Amino acid sequence: MYLSKYLKIGVLLIILCSLISCGVYSFKNTIIPDNVKTVHINLFTNKARYINPQVGPKITDALVQQINNQTKLTLTDDNNADYQISGYISGYDVTTSGIGSTTGTQTASMNRLVVTFHLIWVDATKNNKKQEFNVTQNFDFSSNLSLQEAEVSLMSDIVKNVSESIFNDIFGNW
User: Fold this and answer.
1) Would you kindly state where each structural domain of the chain is located, as residue ranges?
2) Which residue has the higher pLDDT, 4 or 153?
3) Are 18 and 61 in contact (CB under 8 A)?
4) Beta-strand relationship, 24-26 and 105-123
5) Which fold has domain 2-171?
6) What pLDDT, on a 0 to 100 scale, did the predictor assign at position 22?
């Protein structure tokens, strides 16, 4: 009985050691090469037609928190970090997403805020390999609300969803 317990522990340790020594570490669904130690995140700006001055800094802060909580990377102000992340909000647009009918007249019942974020990621460990891509998230709200009213209730979702998409695109197993 004690032998099988120690055997199980031994097998588990062997598996754990083999995973650690493979040159890549994984932490909470992230894949980061072991030679990547530092990351620099520039403050995200807003280049959309409509500018909400809170969104860029809040997304920056949320991404910093995710990196601190979900990776072993060290955040640095050094522009020579292993990973350099920058970007900007390129789209912040409202469209109609639902039509309702009131006494025979069709009116917008739902609006959609479409937030597009342009991400620039430089991997200095791979000869400054640069990747650029867009992250787009949609947020529906009642047409009875103005954009400013909707932003109050949507802000936490906007920040959470956009920062998670950015994090997953950089550090996820894709």
Assistant:
1) 2-171
2) 153
3) no
4) unpaired
5) Double Stranded RNA Binding Domain (3.30.160)
6) 40
Q: How far apart, in whole angstroms, are the C-alpha atoms of residue 5 and residue 115?
A: 53
In terms of Cβ atoms closer than 10 Å to its own Cβ (0-12, 13-18, 19+), residue 14 is: exposed
Amino acid found at 15: I
Summarised one tens digit per residue, pLDDT across range 90-130 is 999 999 876 665 555 555 589 999 999 999 999 999 999 99
User: Is there a contact between 91 and 113 (Cβ–Cβ < 8 Å)?
Assistant: no
Q: What is the pTM of this model?
A: 0.76
Closest CA to 170 of 80, 63, 22: 63
Residue with tokens 């350099």: 84
**Could you read off the pLDDT of 17-64 as tens digits, one per residue?**
444 434 343 344 567 888 999 999 999 999 999 999 999 999 999 999
The two tokens of residue 47 are 């280049």
Helical residues (DSSP H) of the chain, grouped into ranges:
2-20, 55-70, 147-171
Tokens 């991997």 -> residue: 123
DSSP state of 71: -
The closest of 2, 70, 16, 8 to 39, measured between CA atoms, is 70
Counting other chains too, the contacts that 50-57 makes at CB distance below 8 Å and 24 or more residues apart are 50/92, 50/93, 50/147, 51/92, 52/92, 52/151, 54/155, 55/89, 55/92, 55/115, 55/155, 55/158, 55/159, 56/88, 56/89
